[in-house]
Amino acid sequence: MAADEPTMNSGVEHRSSESQDEVLQKHSILSIEAIRQYIQSDLLNDTTIRIDSGQDMLLSGMLDSLNIIRLVTHIESECKITIPPEDVVLENFNSLNDIARYIRSRGVSTD
After folding, report:
1. DSSP SS3 for 8
2. What are the two backbone dihedrals, phi and then psi, of residue 63, each rounded to the nearest 5 degrees?
3. What are the tens digits of pLDDT across the range 38-75?
4. In whole angstroms, what is the distance from residue 76 CA to residue 87 CA?
5. What is the pTM for the complete model shown?
6. Domain that holds residue 79
7. Contacts of the segment 14-21: beta carbons below 8 A, 24+ positions apart
8. Alpha-carbon dihedral 23, 26, 29, 32, rounded to 10 degrees
9. What is the count of structural domains for the chain?
10. 108 in Cβ contact with 27 (< 8 Å)
11. What is the CATH number of the domain that holds 43?
12. Which distant-in-sequence residues (6+ apart) come within 8 Å of 82 by Cβ?
């Protein structure tokens, strides 16, 4: 069996190094509730503010452009992904549902 172990280990290491980002994305979880809590506590500094999943946070003025950049940075850090500038658009970050949909499209679970 000792002769088989290096082959198996080499295969695992090889797969991991080729698709490390994919593995991290598929195993990362960032729930809608975690995003809501981050927005309330870190961006708005008010945990009593109610944010519904479908609520328009941008056009309502709840979040501004600086908050969106901070939110994008937080998501990148938590999910270990890079969000390209062209993806930082209203359709992806307008509501918690939109954010969750976008994160899922990047291979990260929101459940």
Report:
1. helix
2. -115, 140
3. 999 999 999 999 999 999 999 999 999 999 999 999 99
4. 12
5. 0.72
6. 4-105
7. 21/80, 21/81
8. 150
9. 1
10. no
11. 1.10.1200.10
12. 76
